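re: ur msg from earlier - yeah i can do the nicotinamide-adenine-dinucleotide complex, just paste it... oh wait u already did. ok heres what im feeding in:
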Amino acid sequence: MTSLLGAQERAVLDAVPRQLYIGGRWRDGEQGTMAVEDPATGEDLCEVANASPADAMAALDAAVAAQPTWAQHAPRERGEILRRAFEAIMDRSDELALLMTLEMGKPLAEARAEVLYGAEFLRWFAEEAVRIDGRFAAAPTGRGRLLTMKQPVGPCLLITPWNFPLAMGTRKVGPAVAAGCTMVVKPAQQTPLSMLAFVRIMEEAGLPGGVLNVVMSSQAGATMGPLIADSRLRKLSFTGSTEVGRRLMEQGSANLLRLSMELGGNAPFLVFEDADLEDAVGGALLAKMRNMGEACTAANRFYVQASVADEFATLLAERMGAMRVGRGSDAATEVGPMIDAAQQAKVAALVDDAVGRGARALVGGRVPEGAGYFYGPTVLSNVPADAELLREEIFGPVAPVLSFADEDAAIAAANSTNYGLVAYVYTRDLERAFRVTERLETGMVGLNQGIVSNAAAPFGGVKHSGFGREGGREGIDEYLETKYVAMRL
Ligand code: NAD
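and the outut:
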């Protein structure tokens, strides 16, 4: 196949390390190499090292060896390393964005936005590193003093998904570095390149060898299993599917491993009749189409009050139907490909299932012709309650629109899922906004807003969307233990 890559794309790829990073050294993997694919063409971009279970254990050995010294590092120094990495990412944001688009498919503008969002976690936790503190209090009897101190949890395993190849990494590495933890990072097989580029930046920013180790693997379960079973590992922070998260919880239970779980979503998007409809459609586009719908926060079910449901669906179909689908690296592209053939097939099957049960495609509903794993933006109306895509995370550019009669019905529909990551609410009635927000069973709510992600805010879910929070003041607590000291006085 003739390569579709231009000189700039080649140069960006060639600048990325392709090896494992263990104990401050770049080295080959015992399982040879594995290919990274361009989802826009199906073409192989490059090969990266493929780790064996022994490589993963070597990474844990390095993290364990580095832990005591790293924990003693001055918080200010840890923060300054993060700050330098933040600056370096900002300086190289164009190259990092192009790299991300190549391996993941998202449009360049969105890749740029992720690079900035990802970098924000480094800036935020650079500032948090020096704010780790404890408490001092008199015991209720008055005869003693209670002192608490925060200490790093210890060596961590950080597992990240393919949909936000940089930000899902910095959101974990930032607080772990700030807290004084060492770590082994395992990026997703489909998108290791952004993480490798980031690790090189951390190395250049002065992070001591052994603090951050990276292993890639084509067989995640077999490679990481022994590491997870090792009692020297003290924490697992996982972002990915609920199914894999559940399996990892079981594996971690033998050692009572501390866990943070950022899992799947099935976000409801509620539009009340008092909402500004244009604004709601704009928010819907963001909540649905960012990352081609391949976001855990993606609006998965649109519930619109009956009096405005048809108008909303028509407006949304107009806007989604006008979006330009194409290779992420083309400047005009607004919708890139799905990550791989399996994801494309899953989206197509969910739409076919809904249409087979009586839903109507107002726009889209088809796999476009040609190479790459594309799926056309799709709006479905008349979606029956038993359609599979109301229960499953679609992870694609498909918007099912349903209607509801009143507030109680809207809340019941929104909460009728095991997931609980985020919900979106559009209303101009302040009282309703609070009433509904309080009754929604989710970790986050977007109020008249289609994007909630912010490095300064606690991101995370409830129910089967997991537990633990990333970002905000809460984010660093996931990497700290509280030690209590009882003092006689
Ligand atoms: P996935 O669960 O298949 O994989 C996630 C990561 O886990 C990858 O690095 C993968 O290699 C690794 N992995 C898979 N099986 C493993 C095993 N047995 N042992 C160790 N590691 C294993 O998920 P994905 O397809 O990469 O990502 C999509 C999912 O991630 C979606 O469900 C999405 O909602 C979720 N997600 C959640 C958030 C959040 O913050 N809540 C953010 C982004 C993505």
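cool cool. Residues 133 and 428 are 41 Å apart (CA to CA). ping me if u need the other ligands too
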